[in-house]
Amino acid sequence: MVKFLWKFVYSRWSYLLVITERECVGSYLGHPIFKVSSMKVFPCDHSLKNSPAEQKKMETEFSGLLSVAEKTPGLYFSYDVNITLSAQRLHDLGDESKLLPLWRQADPRFLWNNYMLEVLIDHKLDPYLLPLVQGSFNHFQAAIGKDIIDVTLIARRCTRRTGTRMWRRGADSDGFVANFVESEQIVQLNGHTASFVQVRGSIPLMWDQIVDLTYKPKFEIVRLEEAPRVAERHILDLRKKYGNVLAVDLVNKHGGEGRLCEKFANAMQHVVSDDVRYLHFDFHQICGHVHFERLSILYDQIENFLIKNRYFLLNEKREKVEVQLGVVRTNCIDCLDRTNVTQSMLGRKMLEFQLRRLGIFDAEETISTHPNFDESFKILWANHGDDISIQYSGTPALKGDFVRYGQRTIQGILKDGWNALMRYYLNNFCDGTKQDAIDLLQGHFIVSVSRDMTPTSQKGGIEAIASFPLALSVIMTGFFFAFMSLRRVRSDFWQLLFSILWAGGSLAIAAFVKANGRVFCNRPRLHQPRR
């Protein structure tokens, strides 16, 4: 059953992206929230039959990318409430704004279908203009004594610099960063509503980490001289939207990450003020891979900021009692694994503050003293981290066993190893095409009749013949024949020469592939983001 749709126009052809299935996943401030279960792209005309051969080829390519876009994960919507806004911002909307259609109220940063709505807006098709958010929506209910507590956790992904893990890093020249996600934790009980917002986002410098078949590609800082200006733009934008800012940097102090850490810290010196703080916490050095309880060291350093900047709170009469005055901005390299462990700790501490304020907890009581509640809370944040990670990296979050169970487990460590290998595979051999699909869907690359369409798909030089599966097959075949020749050396000494030739040829091809690793990876072809 068709729920609603959007229209795309590329070149002379247009498409409808239709939501064919949905499921209700809970409620936001009393209003039902739906998750997109299935989408389908339909062409609006059949003019392709009469198109020139080259345009027909390009149209087929773009149709294939839209098929990839059909599988976009983590899309949510509501018919009744604006889910692009936090509870505090929603409450602060003026009466006139609340009467506007949802798409007019929406925060453009988190409006996933912003570009797709443009055609329908031009044609004044308001009934179909329903905002979508990409992110996560999880909740649970639990009883503590006679009180029923409803806890909701929402993620809103920013669309300004959206993309995949290795093809969207750092910031652009306007200060918009990759993997920027707003996480809002909401608790409702006895008519009260409390909300706590925190954000994550890539290090706000212009930097890349282009895949080249190595497990950990080198970090490349672009236009270093502009780092202070870019960081300032990003932080001032946060200051404008959220109030006071505490930037918590979790990256390593040494190695490739250390250089980024140093440049980020230097750039922040130009921004730090009474309203903006920067704190570095070397997560791996202090916590290692198993001692995540040492995050208490970080909490001790930021507790005063959390207490001072509070959280949003409404009483039974829907009157504003508390206002959140600032935000903690957390980052690691990917803003996934270390970040999610840290944010779950902050969410736990803030929820305990709120439950004490509402008279549910006494002064010494914590979430961990209620096993069922504690288990549900851990699962809530573990699912939250997995959802965000799948959208950016293609796999669930690493270190998720600590968030889910409160400790590292052998099974969790083995799962992390598998997910790390999957990330390597997806980043090197799949994400370029996925990035093209995202750019096409978000309007970052727009095909027009007058635009030269052919260069996007043309390959030249080494790239025209570069195929990693083929190269790997040739290398393995060469080593196989080298081994077989080596076994016959006793009966025929010339087989030693053949073995050396086969092995040498395989090593030469392997060295060539390694030296030209970037060419053998799956890369985006449509759009180079503006710096």
TrEMBL record:
Entry keywords, A to Z: Membrane, Transmembrane, Transmembrane helix
This protein's record includes keyword Membrane: yes
Domain SAC: 66-394
Single Gene Ontology BP annotation: phosphatidylinositol dephosphorylation
Membrane-spanning intervals of the chain: 464-486, 493-513
GO molecular function annotations of the record: phosphatidylinositol-4-phosphate phosphatase activity
Superkingdom of origin: Eukaryota
Claim: Protein biosynthesis is one of the keywords in the record: no
Assigned GO CC terms: endoplasmic reticulum
Protein name: SAC domain-containing protein
Species: Coffea canephora (Robusta coffee)
